[in-house]
Design goal:
The chain is of the alpha+beta class and 179 residues long. It contains four helices and ten strands. The radius of gyration is 17 Å and the shape is globular.
């Protein structure tokens, strides 16, 4: 595996057709994709490991759909506290203290999954509606350098089977993202 240091959002491509496997610094899957010919993708800030040689290119710029109007604007500290615990809601936030309570199962979550659920909870400072929190989280993931396929992957992995409407919302949002 090749170690990659990303200090700002970077674009990469791989050629030849195969399976690219990018692992995060915790050696968990970050971006895994089968491809033919060439594949272009972004990586956000971080340390990664790749099974294939990567060619650096300009970051892929995405046109994003418009966000819904904020339902609220609760002031908060930029620094939030993360607490792993038993949480029957999977993840929740105490808005006044800025504490996000993640269920212990998220200790082994991939970085995109954590980004999605933490981003969702942070979005409660702007939205009360769950699907809007999902949308803002997905929007911010793209802004940070994640790829559209990681949105649906993270959403499907984090939300329960009872959340099909929310999963469909993120799937439809990701389909509106264009290069």
């Amino acid at each position: 595996m090749r170690k990659i240091f990303v200090e700002k959002i970077k674009g990469f491509k791989v050629v030849g057709g195969s399976r690219v496997e990018i692992l995060c610094s915790r050696k968990l899957p970050f971006y895994v994709k089968d491809f033919m010919g060439k594949l272009e993708f972004n990586l956000p800030i971080g340390i990664y490991y790749s099974n294939l040689p990567l060619i650096e290119i300009k970051p892929i710029k995405y046109d994003l759909p418009r966000l819904p109007n904020f339902e609220r604007n609760i002031k908060h500290s930029k620094r939030l506290n993360l607490v792993f615990c038993v949480n029957p809601n999977k993840c929740s936030i105490d808005l006044p203290s800025g504490t996000i309570f993640l269920d212990n199962k998220f200790k082994n979550a991939t970085r995109p999954q954590l980004e999605f659920v933490i981003g969702h909870e942070k979005a409660h400072y702007n939205f009360a509606t769950e699907k809007h929190c999902d949308t803002l989280s997905a929007y911010n993931m793209i802004k940070k350098g994640y790829n559209p396929s990681q949105l649906t992957y993270s959403c499907n992995a984090c939300l329960s089977d009872k959340s099909e409407i929310r999963k469909d919302n993120i799937y439809n949002f990701s389909k509106k993202i264009h290069k």
